[in-house]
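Record pair follows.
FIRST:
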Amino acid sequence: MAAKRTVIENCAIATVDAQDTEYASGHVVVGDNVIEFVGPGAAPAGLENVIRRIDGTGHLATPGLINTHHHFYQWLTRGLAQDCNLFNWLVTLYPVWARIDEPMVHAAARGSLAMLARGGVTTAMDHHYVFPRGAGDLLGVEIRAAREMGVRFTAARGSMDRGESAGGLPPDFAVETAEAALIATEEAIDTHHDASFGSMLQIAAAPCSPFSVSTELMRDAAALGRRKGVRLHTHGSETVEEEKFCHELFGMGPTDYFASTGWLGEDVWMAHCVHMNDSDIAAFGRTGTGVAHCPSSNARLGAGIARVPDMLDAGVPVGLGVDGTASNESGELHTELRNALLVSRLGPRREHALSARQALRLGSYGGAQVLGRAGEIGSLEAGKLADLVLWKLDGIGHSSIADPVAALVFGAAAPVTLSMVNGEPVVEGGRLTTVDEDAIARAAREQAQRLARIADGG
């Protein structure tokens, strides 16, 4: 049966392929769920079974954006603990987060996913690690929310087993035993993980962080993930306080600790990695360990500036992450393109730190590398999955910027006219096509109020 084709023409195109190929005016032809043709000028003549033609005049086509770090549940606690560093922020919010349940997490996931999708994200990721006793199937409702939205999803099954009584930050009733966490992670992999080409759902094994997880759980989770063939994710080197904690507790810095527990390798990616010395970066580059760079969250919590240019020079795979919306209230990834570029230029390399095209690569192909899916997504190339975005750049916000990639990255947040996942529209004309945005907003507001009442003892 002939493929059903969608033809997009007359748009600028940034393919983000290995050569950074761009076209001032070109075409993309989608057949069913894959890209068939990308090139300059008009689409090939005589194409059969074309069900839709889209005039992309005034637009830039890019690969769909890929989010590599998030905490959906935090959608319900935005705007709190506004002037805290990471540890104080966690101590303030953990007692609230420990009251979450299925309806709350479903509403929070839908809100988080809606903001991601509206801003051009076609592959989402979430790191969920708070599983209060009796809260229900929290990972399951996140997976259901992603399916409802129609976006590709990596669900990182997180865990914590180091509560307050063991020297950790979370309340004891919000953590699991190491055994229970490993059993639940394996069940999630067996039930949900799909390793096939074009998969809409993959699972990662993801203990939370060195200061909320025992060494036993870190080691056993790495072994479990490798036995099951899934990727590994955690937080790493986010703050100077974390580095001090690792030296006091383990007698070594975070990177050496991760190496000692099996947490360096091509199947691993870590969030933040702000406080990395030359030796740390070299170790990540040598082992192919990836990084989820979260510039807005790092700024919001005063964590510092990650050495992203140095990481890229060392061959470290780097993608972008929103992080939880309690430390990045916008919940958007497309604004992280701009923030990654600007924040990097506050570092020692200044104006030569990152370019607009490097920022776009972080948000697309870099994210695909970090999630282990660079052969499927992250660039506009024939044979890859049809995950793409049309950004509207002919409005007042971008009208005087001749370079479309610069307009997207340096300019105001660009409206999304079309976002496709597997060749199917998820956003059209700036609105989600698969869900009711207003209903999502109402449910999130109601569940946030409910959580606040419960946390206050009401």
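SECOND:
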Amino acid sequence: MNSLVDPTTTLDHLRTDSDRLWAALMEMATLGATAKGGVNRQALTELDRQGRDLFIQWCRAEGCTIRIDNIGNIFARREGSDTNAKTVMAGSHLDSQPTGGKYDGCFGVLAGLEVIRTLNEHRITTKAPIEVVAWTNEEGCRFPPCMMGSGVFTGELEFDAMMARKDADGVSVSDALDAIHYRGSDEVSPSEIKAYFEPHIEQGPILEDTDTTIGVVIGALGQKWFDLTLTGLEAHAGPTPMHLRRDAMMGAAEVTQALNRIANEHQPHGRGTVGYMALHPGSRNVIPGQVKMTLDMRHWEPDALTAMGDAVAAAIEEICQRHGLTYELTPTADFAPEYFNKACVEAVRQGAEKLELSHMDIISGAGHDAIFIGRVAPAAMIFIPCKDGISHNEAESATPGDVHAGCNVLLHAMLEAAGTA
């Protein structure tokens, strides 16, 4: 690496290569490509191995040192001039949903790689090391929970418990890591991180709706998830009068209404969703005797999130008493709201301003690896628009211009944090 900066380029005018970044995204998207234009590259599958191999190949071509830890997280490091400096890191994930898109996660990893390619191309030496990370199993669709790799890395999730998690076919995370040869042994610590930036498509409609190019992500909504089982009594749909029924589905319908009402009472940040519901016995002429369903609550303020949870629990109790039902309410996730590091957020904001890009502060409604990293190191995120706010869908789409803009903001945020020699 040469410390001489290319005389034709000043740092303020430095830009990444839009065509090179787009080509990398499109080449990665061929691994697990679906007929509808999306990607099926689930965590720790053979296709995930191919994506990891390609990423490492590209990083080694840029002179990066590769480390892989015990959960399979990949760290690609470009050294800086100060051997004692903490690293400035960017990243996201390469795994996808079964019917995922080309950009979710992958954009963040390859934007980080493009930053390294740009610094190499212009012979720019940073004081702090620059590192790109691809986190293992962010999606959690094959092996719950989501954000597994970053969760283990930060200590939020317990290593042995995660290694024992199994997919629908009974394959464990441990066995899957061995099968694709990505069980690493390198020691990487959160204490090494000076700053972490994660570029990502918004996965929502706000930026597109406001015609804004860059979302300066100031934090993420807290989340409370529950599994709820309502139990009544299945009976014949014809002979059983309405007032004598113990209809679990009626209870489920009212719980769904209550959840949505409570979320609407806690605006602007309240979210309430029933994403799954299963009826037993599932016959058209039998009153449902049991319903299993999920509840998803989110909010930006801890007290409001707690209040939503309490209100939903009280509503369930009242509804079940009225319909003669019993219930079991089991917590499955409880994430506090995340407030990103002010200096990292400001580096993103200044990057957008330097590039004269329209930008706005925004709160992430989805979970991301940056949420776990932000609990142990300074972190922030960069959002770009996605068409119609669609994500976790083969129709997921972003424009080359927005992808390039987000990568350029990342470049300047990382330069601000890392400094130059």
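COMMENT: The CA atoms of residues 244 and 323 lie 9 Å apart.
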